Amino acid sequence: MSGDRSAMTFASAAMALVGLLAGCEAFSSSEDIAVAPELGATPTNTRQAAPRSVPTTQASGPGSGISLFGELNDYQGVPFAAQAAHGLQQHTFTREGADFDPEVDRTGRLLIFASTRHFTRPDIYVKAIGGAAVTQLTDDPASDVQPQISPNGQWVAFASDRGGNWDIWITSIDGQSTQQLTKSPKAEVHPSWSQDGQRLVYCALNSQTKEWELWVLDLQQPGLQKYIGNGLFPRWSPKDDVIVYQRARARGKRWFGIWTLRLVNGEPRFPTEIASSDEHALIAPAWTQNGERVVYCAVGTQSPDGSAASNPSATGEVWITDANGKGRIRITHGPAVNYSPACGPNGLVYFASNRSGTENIWSIAPIQPPAPVADARSTDDAGTKAGP
Asked: What is the pTM of this model?
């Protein structure tokens, strides 16, 4: 497996394709985490590299050893009639390595992301949204990924294998104070802050069931964690005790769908599937900053003619939906893999994409869907039947 850092572009959807084609939530890994080759594959060597889900390097390139999907050289995007977004902007410009796992603070001024632009393993970086200078926030020989900034803007939670396996850590926004929060032998990744900044939700791999679980940690008592269900890549609503996450079906193709659950007095209630597809895995959900809509990535494979193939190309597009699953709209389009969405307070959706040739951070402004029509005969769940 190549040690070149450009082959380790670990998106915040990391491990989301785990079991995507194998039909389970287990994963296996050699040097880098890849897709399980068979149902029930046992995870091994999880400390070797950061989690990864949507590889975008060519099969002949430095990432050939870990890529499930290649570049979309043969993929022809299908045009759609309605303009779903506007104002595409590029925010990072690395030409070596990759920038991924974007996160925006609540003021809309800071962009935080993971990057392999300088070293053979990823670190966390921060930059002003409209600026050019990039500041390195973490500096460790291990891998630091999936940064999430606290509601007050003072702390950044992230996943790191610097302690020997994947755990949740936090660091101050100036990088001067760093603390390890989880210390179990399980792989624990993808933290997300509660709206009051007092709790974190994250996912952990159960070594016995080989399934990913959702856990909540109280920062006042970090030694105590509470299990709230099975799933991957949770995100806490910025205005409520509702968590969005991805969850695989237990039958059929076992594609991932997007779910929410509500915490009532700390107890998980009302798990609800808000988006699903028979042709795509729906992964890496994130809330808009008003908590009213959810963005996510729809990934799948197809051959140049649109049929199944033994060596298919990747498709990765960002979608947005109302929190109740209505009004789904595809907001990215074209011959590139777009993934790992996050939202800013200005309504922009930030995401990682290889559309510039290397993986960088971009943003786009979704068009607000029209208000629902009162007449039930003319209302429709936009996009429900037409896409992921």
From this structure: 0.77
